[in-house]
Amino acid sequence: MPQMDEFEVLSFSRLNHVTMSVTQIGYRNPHIHQALEICLVLEGEADVWARDHVFHAGEGAILLFSPGEPHEISSTDPQGVRIAYIQIASHFCRDYIRPLRNLELSGNDASEFLTAQQQKALARQILITMRDYFTPDSADRLQVLCDVCTLLHQLLALIPYRYLNETAYQAHGKKMARIQRITEYMDTHCTERLTLEELAEQENITTTYLSHFIRDNLNMTFQQYLNNLRFEKARKLIETTDMCLSDVSLASGFSDPKYMKRMFAERFGCTPGAHRQNAIQSLPLHAQSVPSQQAADAAACLEHIAAFAQLHFPDAEGWES
Asked: Fewest CB atoms within 10 A around its CB: which of 28, 49, 67, 100?
């Protein structure tokens, strides 16, 4: 399994209610956003889970996630998968279009609905939108706004969708709120002794109901989700500190270092110590992947999308990185 790693190349917004980024992912636990998310796979491959369905996404794939829709991404590439994404807030242009919070797309893999030509056209609009968003010293926010509106118009013209009525939306919203409370509580307390009974008491529901709820909505059991959180914290401590393994195990919530070692063997095929050495050797790459200034962030994102555009749209102009 590829290294469980995710780094943000960009973390700022030039347009209200819209966020864009380029991310490198090894594994991402099931999670939700309150925004419409449009993703383009720039490099690598991944298995994607959403709506009780797993599909494979390779370079050039377009992934779509409705607001509040749980999804999980697991790279099948040793180097991880690089994804460009655009998140459009549920209240974007709310004076002119129906609220995106009620939007439910009919699927997550755009290729299910599009011809090759349509998919290429949509990918091109994603790239144009991101290019204009990341272009340095550009004060023309109106152009970026036009790009986003064009992208949204194209998407809704090509992908089947429906708008939930208020009753359906309220029911959906309550479920999403519970998922968010559960995952946030587990993330906050995963280094402690956390039980299903404690979480059920927090939600005022039975352990049986909670167990089924987590499996149905997060694609894994309570213990599997908890172990993933603990493993991620242990991985980061292994990579970024010189703490001994027993201290890492305790700090990340594992009751037994042997279990942590077993997870490293299953995920990476090596011991925690060997993984630490690998991380040290690859440190310059990671350092370059997390720029500290917005200008460097934008330049990095432009470089990634330009490389993809030049490969897949060789006759297009304006893709210089």
From this structure: 49
